[in-house]
């Protein structure tokens, strides 16, 4: 399955701690809001700004991350491992809420800003894999992690979870 090693300072300096399972509140491990770099071995992990996997998120793929970035530095409060099979991913995007209107099946990382479907998606169904939906084509703005077998009928109602109505420009 793999693990994540977290460090209190950039460039893998200072105290460190290793996790192999999800941790919904880093306060329980005395590591809340003090992570600056990480090493990921095996499956990817998601770092969240708030406890219980809420708030801004950062997807951390396998490898060494010598700095978690300005946005998340010393602001990580929960960690979650991605256990889904990432081979042959598939998501269906729908133009309108409740899976209505034009639909499009996506099977690979796609920049919607370069086509007709930029900022027109209002709901989705994930058939397989895990998808990072981003508001901006560069991966910035609101981000939402869509997991296998998840159905999200209305982005407008899910704004607090990271989606913003009809504003998906990039999928990874």
Number of domains: 2
CATH topology of the largest domain: Gamma-B Crystallin, domain 1
Number of helices: 0
Rg from Cα: 16 Å
Which CATH architecture of the largest domain?
A: Sandwich
Task: State the distance separating the first and last CA atoms.
Answer: 21 Å
Fraction in helix: under 10%
Q: Tally of extended strands? A: 15
**Mean pLDDT level:** 91
Pfam families: Crystall
Protein name: Beta/gamma crystallin 'Greek key' domain-containing protein
GO molecular function: structural constituent of eye lens
Keywords: Repeat
Task: Explain the layout of strands and helices.
Layout: E1 2-9, E2 13-19, E3 37-42, E4 45-50, E5 54-60, E6 63-65, E7 78-81, E8 90-96, E9 100-106, E10 110-111, E11 123-128, E12 131-134, E13 143-146, E14 151-152, E15 170-171
Antiparallel strand pairs: 1-2, 1-3, 3-6, 4-5, 4-7, 8-9, 8-11, 10-15, 11-14, 12-13, 12-15
Description:
Keywords: Repeat. This protein is mostly beta strands. It is built from no helices and 15 strands. It has two domains: 2-81, Crystallins (Gamma-B Crystallin, domain 1), CATH 2.60.20; 90-171, Gamma-B Crystallin, domain 1 (Sandwich), CATH 2.60.20. It starts with a strand and ends with a strand. The mean pLDDT is 91.
Nutshell version of this structure?
The chain has 172 residues and is mainly beta. Helix content is 0%, strand content 44%.
